[in-house]
Amino acid sequence: MLTLLNLLKDGRFHSGQDLGAALGISRSAVWKQLQHLEAELGLSIHKVRGRGYQLSAPLMLLDPLKMAGMKAVWPITVLDTTDSTNAEALRAIGLGQEAPFLVLAERQTSGRGRRGRKWVSPFAENLYFSLVLRIDGGMRQLEGLSLVVGLAVLQTLRKLGVTGAGLKWPNDVLVGNKKIAGILLELVGDPADVCHVVLGIGVNVNMQVAEEVDQQWTSMRLETGKSCDRNILVAELGEQLLAYIQRQQIDGFSVLQAEWEENHLWQERSVSLIAGVSQIDGVVLGIDNQGALRLKVNGVEKVFSGGELSLRLRDDS
Ligand code: ATP
User: Fold this and answer.
1) In this structure, how many other beta carbons lie within 10 angstroms of the beta carbon of residue 173?
2) Is the CATH number 2.30.30.100 carried by domain 266-313?
3) Residue pLDDT, tens place only, 57-104
4) Which of 157, 170, 192, 195: CA 20 to 30 A from 223?
């Protein structure tokens, strides 16, 4: 089906006859495939008598050859559609694929956030990126890793013209109070010995409408007013991740602590820390040298860490 999309992606008109000839199928088979593209991928295709078919807007698909050097750094798999790039990456680890490697997809049918929440992932609009690393230096190599990924995503967005973005502990990237990117780290193996970690990153790139997203969100396109070639984004994000992760692995997370705090949108804010059904109210002091949250609770500094914690602003903040 992507072959047909590759023919149409220039946004120009193509006759049913030409499409059929290029694909070696009948005109009615072309028609069926087009209907399938519309239904499956949510694309809108115009049909004009005498001219043929045209996508409502040109598409820039993911292409490793356009990712400026990244293919040389990590083997890249690009999928048209998958349940979740993190799930795909975990399956590949299970099958023995050697890390590092990168999984990208044009769309996710079950994109995931933390604690089973859904990440809305329409076709060809955003970035769905899962990088697999093998960690064999023990726990220290994992310290603050999800916060480090947040810094790399933030710098990437800035380089590509998104101003005003910042971080929310532990690993959200927001513009104001609108979410522009989400990060989900998943780990398999023994963290104290040898393990694999999947760095899952979803960035809203060219998305302009998404009724299913049930909290405030934005995209690079909405922030900059320009569409972004996701291949350039992959290359930039790859470079930033390489640089930040290398620093963390060599020097430890503590060298990034101050930079992370400078970019924390909720420093000094009154927040509630939610852990399941319990809630702790306090004021954000920052993070410690392992990436744990420092909160002032009833005048006393307390430190919190763990993947199940969520921060919410308090109304009186
Ligand atoms: P937390 O503060 O615990 O991180 P969160 O609600 O931001 O809370 P995540 O697991 O990070 O949770 O992300 C999943 C949530 O993000 C979804 O429940 C939904 O509200 C929102 N969401 C889903 N898809 C998108 C998207 N493409 N862009 C922005 N936000 C999204």
Assistant:
1) 27
2) yes
3) 888 899 999 998 777 789 999 999 999 999 999 999 999 999 999 999
4) 170
Domain boundaries, given as residue ranges, for the chain: 2-55, 64-261, 266-313
**What is the rounded distance in angstroms from the CA atom of residue 310 to the CA atom of residue 147?**
14
Out of 169, 179, 209, 211, give the residue to mutate to test ligand 1, the one with the largest number of ligand atoms within 8 Å of its CB. Answer: 179
Instruction: Name the more confident of 207 and 68.
Output: 207
Catalytic site residue from 66, 114, 134, 247: 114
Q: Is residue 312 among the annotated active site residues?
A: yes
Query: pLDDT tens, 126-155?
Result: 999 999 999 997 788 889 999 999 999 999
Which sign does the torsion angle of CA 295, 296, 298, 303 carry?
A: positive
Beta bridge partners of 283: 270, 296
Q: Note if 107 is an active site residue.
A: no
- From its phi and psi, is residue 298 left (phi > 0), alpha (psi between -120 and 50) or beta? left
Query: Which residue ranges have their beta carbon within 6 Å of ligand 1?
Result: 113-114, 117-120, 172, 179, 182, 204, 213-215, 217, 310-311
CATH classification code of 64-261: 3.30.930.10
Provide the CATH number for the domain formed by 2-55 in this structure: 1.10.10.10
**Rounded-to-integer distance, Cα 11 and Cα 59, Å:** 7
